[in-house]
Amino acid sequence: MNVVIIGAGYVGLVTGCCLAEAGHRVVCVDHDAEKLAGLRSGRLPFHEPELVTILGEQLASGRLLFEDSVARAMPNADLVFLAVGTPSQTDGSANLENLLRCANELAATAFSDCMVVVKSTVPVGTGDRLEALLNENRDQHSGHPRIRVVSNPEFLAEGRAVQDFRHPDRIVIGANDAGSAAALAQLYAPFDVDGMRLMFMDRRSAEFAKYACNAMLAARISMINELAGLASGFGADIEAVCGVLKGDPRIGGSYLHPGVGYGGSCLPKDLSALITCAKTIGEPADMLCSTQRVNNRQGRRLLEFIREYFRGELRGKRIAIWGLSFKPATDDVRAAPSLALIRGLLNEGALVSAYDPVAMKAASLALGATPVVFGASAMSVCEGADALVLMTEWDEFKAPDFKALAMCMQGSMVFDARNLYQGSMLRQYGLQHFALARCARPKGDNAGLSGRTSPVRPETAQAQAHGGEKPYS
Ligand SMILES: NC(=O)c1ccc[n+]([C@@H]2O[C@H](COP(=O)([O-])OP(=O)(O)OC[C@H]3O[C@@H](n4cnc5c(N)ncnc54)[C@H](O)[C@@H]3O)[C@@H](O)[C@H]2O)c1
């Protein structure tokens, strides 16, 4: 089929490359000229495993082209994907500006009957709105809209997007007419190898399904983080508890990793958008609001612990950060917990050095002009550091040379926001370990701690709270 994709970002580009690989003819349109120039010469604008190879192969095959103009891309198109960003507005609602601009461009473009497929995550009812807009000035001889809009939300995860697209768990097709559903089934046939992947439903249900999935994932993350906080308060080991949870088939094993909370370009913004939409139908969305509150608190807790460790004085303290992307295998730093932490540390006068295998450029752009020093290696940013904070569980951070780390740091504390290390291992090298997921909230009243001359470690405070026992490693 002839496919046009508007928006060559994480979703649009993966979609375009994988559809071309499956034999479709694809034109990707983007308004970012620099991005297009890079793509035409086989360079990716972001880090995504395996994608660069497919890009090169499909450029060479001639099945994948890049365009800056919707009008030039449209002749012969069987369907048009909209895969532009739908970021949060200040009130939390989804900003549909990009999407509507594309729809207006499409409406102004003379093209024959065609299908518009919305891949962007959009509030329920956006498909109705787009269909009305696209057909406004078109001849409606048949009584049916000539431009049909289908919802086809995307479920790929950055870092494994190619694998997710090639081998999807499910492909959701929200179509209000049988012809559109059949056309999408034809497009996706190469990916529906066992005939079990396609899920057909009406457009509104498909739009909502995307938000429902992200709401469930976010809720699971906040729930395990809240349970982790409770566990440490009660003197229970959350790792052991997670094993019990995972052993229950009704609960399942995924998304049960306590840590610093969710970030990235989807969960925070989609939750905010859903909460905002819920208000418009008079629903309080209590669970969604709690999920969001727990997540926001989780990020703040880490800064609170670091501050408490340094007895409230972060000015001049050298803090090294390992990991900037919101998760491993991507350079996406949108709503990354690391950036919030860095801003918090800088605000309090700390000196921050940071290293990430691929996300330093993106982080530097996102942070703007700051005194953060980005280092060439994990060890180099720890030279003379008073503490290290592990923020992203990249493979290269999983088994670092702890001996070298202990030697190059000035201090000894490793704040582990991802529950990656075993304290016993670190202690062998004279390092201390603070696992965010295994430590209770710091007490509001620090009066009992303030008179000390040596730094009060969360480990010590925690051990005291549990009669000298250490509830975490
Ligand atoms: N990133 C993910 O993991 C993911 C997963 C599932 C769904 N989604 C959803 O998919 C959508 C796209 O997300 P993304 O991460 O790919 O965004 P992105 O920011 O990486 O890419 C969007 C692209 O659209 C281009 N663009 C914006 N307006 C345009 C216009 N008017 N004309 C032409 N190009 C335009 C931008 O230049 C950019 O290249 C969002 O709604 C997002 O919520 C994202």
From TrEMBL:
EC number: 1.1.1.22
Superkingdom of origin organism: Bacteria
GO BP annotation list: polysaccharide biosynthetic process; UDP-glucuronate biosynthetic process
Residue positions of the active site: 266 (nucleophile)
Catalytic reactions on record: UDP-alpha-D-glucose + 2 NAD(+) + H2O = UDP-alpha-D-glucuronate + 2 NADH + 3 H(+)
Pathway in which this enzyme or protein is active: Nucleotide-sugar biosynthesis; UDP-alpha-D-glucuronate biosynthesis; UDP-alpha-D-glucuronate from UDP-alpha-D-glucose: step 1/1
Keywords, comma-separated and alphabetical: NAD, Oxidoreductase
Binding site for substrate: 155-158, 210, 255-259, 263, 327
Any one GO MF annotation of this record: NAD binding
UDP-glucose/GDP-mannose dehydrogenase C-terminal domain sequence ranges: 320-423
Positions that bind NAD(+): 30, 35, 86, 121, 158, 269, 334
Region span, Disordered: 445-473
Gene3D superfamilies attached to this UniProt entry: Cytochrome c1, transmembrane anchor, C-terminal (1.20.5.100), NAD(P)-binding Rossmann-like Domain (3.40.50.720)
Recorded family membership: Belongs to the UDP-glucose/GDP-mannose dehydrogenase family.
PANTHER family: UDP-GLUCOSE 6-DEHYDROGENASE TUAD (PTHR43750:SF3)
Name of the protein this chain belongs to: UDP-glucose 6-dehydrogenase
